[in-house]
Amino acid sequence: MAWSLPAEGLSLLLSALQQAQLGLRAVLHILGLAPDIHGQPAWPFAYRIAGEMLALDAGHARRVAICIACLLLAGLSLLVSLAWRRGRPGLWVLAAAALLLAPWPEPHLLLAPAVPTSLHASPTGFTAQGIVRGQAVYQQQCVRCHGADGRGEGVDAAKLPMWPPTLTGSLLWKRLDGELFWRVRHGMRARDGSSTMPGFGPPLSDVQVWEVLNYLQANAAGQMLKESGGWSYPVRMPDAAVLCRHQAPRTLHSLGGQRLRLLTDTAPLQEDPRLVSVYTAVNATDPECQASAPELPDLRRALSLVLGVQPAQLAGHQLLVDRDGWLRARGQPGQAGWSASDLVCRSTATPLTLASTTPAGDGLDGLIRRMDDEPVRLLRGGFPH
Ligand code: HEC
């Protein structure tokens, strides 16, 4: 059987399962069975649904989808049989058949070990200030093992019973945020129970741990770009306060729904109706939008992190942000116009060629079409975020 769920079906299935888990947690919370831990209701079970396996294994996803359909059919039959007496025997047979014939998935594929914060969402957002504060925590607490660039080559790494993993690639995107949080907060152990990474409790606060995770993600984005020239995993735009012409102060994220162009140079560029220009440098002329002065240094630090350049080399870079707030394309200093190779967010498998109908000119139309036509779907531990 070669049939597999289409991408939209899979993402629907994953969101439905995630919503079901969150709903269950909310109900248990009301009943007092999921008390707050680290500021959000705890997941009280030792297992959660393994969204990552559904995203990876098409056959498994198909079985789960059919199984859910069978369960719904069985439930519906039983419900109708309550009201429809004469149809009852037939409906019961139908319900039993649906349950018997359902292709039950293997439990070890369906479930993954959980921790109390598995379903926690980061309360800090992805702000430039948080990323920069997280960097300071990283340099104080983590660098000795994980190394300055996050590749696991800190000065103490060789003395550890286990080499620290590379935190610059896929690992961070495969895990659930709440599970990374738990591991940093409470430490990690080997199978034999011996400690592999120490936990970081007080004096670090919960917020500091979330912020160091934000920093790790920004750093990983920059390292990926340096290594492969692209982002195999999507990166969000760091948030910061901005001032836009004739408007009250607002945040970059609140500009969502529009395409943005983040500029790191002071030189004013001609305004472009296709995007909102946001200057992250002090700009004398009347800019469309500009990062607010107190947050400007942190925003520039965060942008240099995601671009993988030193802050001193940031000037002249540009970043294009799609309507959903994902960083999609990078312009490098001195570059004239845009081309397909600037599309660094490669979350889809489609090769990096722009349609031959791309009008000549600055190449921006083609890039924008790609950004709009291929929205990013971030799967975290298999679940959409
Ligand atoms: C004493 C050395 C040491 C220090 C300090 C340290 N780590 Fe680790 N870290 C490790 C080792 C070793 C592992 C692999 C552990 C394992 O897989 O059992 C690890 C694993 C991780 C992982 C991967 C978790 C996963 O899901 O696989 C993350 C994320 C992480 N560390 C973040 C941090 C952060 C953030 C800090 C600072 C607050 C930090 N570490 C400090 C040694 C260290």
TrEMBL record:
Keywords: Heme, Iron, Membrane, Metal-binding, Transmembrane, Transmembrane helix
One of the Pfam families matching this protein, by short name: Cytochrome_CBB3
InterPro entries linked: Cyt_c-like_dom, Cyt_c-like_dom_sf, Cytochrome_c-type_DH
Protein name (record): Mono/diheme cytochrome c family protein
Domain Cytochrome c, chain residue ranges per copy: 129-220
PROSITE patterns: CYTC
Residues passing through the membrane, by range: 63-84, 91-111
Species per Swiss-Prot/TrEMBL record: Rhodoferax ferrireducens
